[in-house]
Amino acid sequence: MRSVVRRSALLFLKLMKRNDIPEFSVLPKHIGIIMDGNGRWAKKRGLPRYEGHIEGAKTFRRIGEFAADIGIKYLTFYAFSTENWKRPKEEVDAIMQIFREYLLEADDRKKENEEKGISLRFIGERKGMPADLLELMENTEKQSRDKSNVILNIAVNYGGRHEITQSVKEIARKAVKGEISVDEIDEDMISKSLYTGGIPDPDLIIRPSGEYRISNFLTWQSAYSEFWFTDVLWPDFSEEDLIAALREFEKRNRRFGGV
Ligand code: IPE
Ligand code: IPE
Ligand code: MG
Predict the structure, then answer these.
(1) pLDDT tens digit string along 100-124?
(2) Any catalytic annotation for residue 231?
(3) Domains of the chain
(4) What CA–CA distance (Å, rounded) separates 57 from 55?
């Protein structure tokens, strides 16, 4: 009897939760998010910068799940750029440690992610990443390979220009070997050879923290993306902020060069 009550209560909660998910007339297939403003969030509170990164990682989990619940199929979160190595070693180490802890929790999240059908992937240059992190990244990817209701990319050691350079090298090597002719090189071939190969270009890119730039994020892929900016710092970014971005996206008139 008790378990029946419990089950009904759980079902009720589940339905309630589903009702909280807003409906949209049009949804982006792929959203890119530049998770910026962690340092300023911490500074405002007199805390060390890494506290901002810890809080930012929590926001990442919350917003990732909410976006998946809304029905976004592809999400790319910018976590660490090829330029971020310029930061003081202590800060870089703290960010890597937060990333390590996130990956170590993979088992807890495995169940949640399985339920939601979330598949975790990493985009970026693997060379230069700490060896233990690389192993954890590979294990996480292996674990969630088959469940692909939602693809959640985390961009780590990612730079758009680096990505394009890598792709140019790979294509040039093939041409030198005679595997392809130079005339065969087209936009489609380049797109496929990027880390995001096979994933649609981002329809919407969100940047919090009051900066109006792309900072080397999805350089090739964002050619026709819609942009949405907010002054909110990433750790404070809420479900309502994501809804506001999506409401704005509903109103955008995407022409892709047409009329
Ligand atoms: C984004 O927050 C996190 C990373 C770039 C790793 P920042 O650390 O850039 O925060 P601000 O821009 O200094 O506030
Ligand atoms: C962009 O933020 C990179 C990430 C959020 C991972 P930055 O803080 O590095 O960007 P800039 O330096 O303000 O352009
Ligand atoms: Mg920043």
Answers:
(1) 999 998 767 777 777 778 999 999 9
(2) no
(3) 27-159+201-220+241-248 (3.40.1180.10)
(4) 5
